[in-house]
Amino acid sequence: MEHLRCVVERITYTNPENGYTVLKVAAKNYNDLVTVVGTMPDTHVGSVLSLEGFWKMDARYGRQFSMEKFEETLPATVYGIEKYLGSGLIKGVGPKFAKRIVQKFGKDTLDVIEETPDELITVEGIGKIRVERIKKSWLEQKEIKNIMLFLQNHEVNTTHATKIWKHRSLRLHWMKCFAQRM
């Protein structure tokens, strides 16, 4: 299996039923955008991914990286953080507010959202209601990532992990299992 570390630049296609996704990513040591295909639920523009998979040649679409396993990490650059926040991932933050937040907190932006989110109120145009929306959305996204990582670490492939996440009763069962292991 090969490894690919990349930043999502564009989401070409996503199937909400099964999580199958086609991405265009910027990858280290590649001048052009790389096409990545596979089951990657809740992937957003600006996401930094560490992928395992293999290269294949599709007769219609050309060379693609077929993802078998993925892990999302947080972006490390100011540009990446702004793109990540502005992607719509976090409710209450679009491109305009992402820019303002990153201008205010720079590389510490994600730490502020994670550890002291009430400081977001110091950003022009952000009030208490928006701060609460951001806090709630950030926690939901964190929960999704933690459960997906937990399932992958227990050798549940991403397709099955997506089905579990989409099915409410299974999701509640896995969340209990996850909480017991912590």
Protein described:
The protein is of the alpha+beta class and 182 residues long. 43% of the residues lie in helices and 27% in strands. It has helices at residues 78-89, 95-105, 109-115, 128-153, 158-166, 168-181; strands at residues 2-14, 20-27, 34-39, 48-58, 62-73. A hairpin with a 5-residue loop joins strand 1 (2-14) and strand 2 (20-27). Helix 1 packs antiparallel against helix 2 (95-105). It is globular and about 50 Å long. The two termini are 30 Å apart. The model has no long low-confidence stretch (mean pLDDT 83).
How many domains, as an integer? 2
Total count of strands: 5
Cα separation of the termini: 30 Å
Average pLDDT for all residues: 83
For the structure shown, list the relevant keywords.
182 residues, alpha+beta, OB fold (Dihydrolipoamide Acetyltransferase, E2P), five-stranded mixed beta barrel, 27% strand
Task: Describe the structure concisely.
The protein has 182 residues and is α+β, with helices and mostly antiparallel strands. Helix content is 43%, strand content 27%.
Which helices and strands occur, and which strands form pairs?
Elements: E1 2-14, E2 20-27, E3 34-39, E4 48-58, E5 62-73, H1 78-89, H2 95-105, H3 109-115, H4 128-153, H5 158-166, H6 168-181
Parallel strand pairs: 3-5
Antiparallel strand pairs: 1-2, 1-4, 2-3, 4-5
Helix pairs in contact: 1-2, 4-5
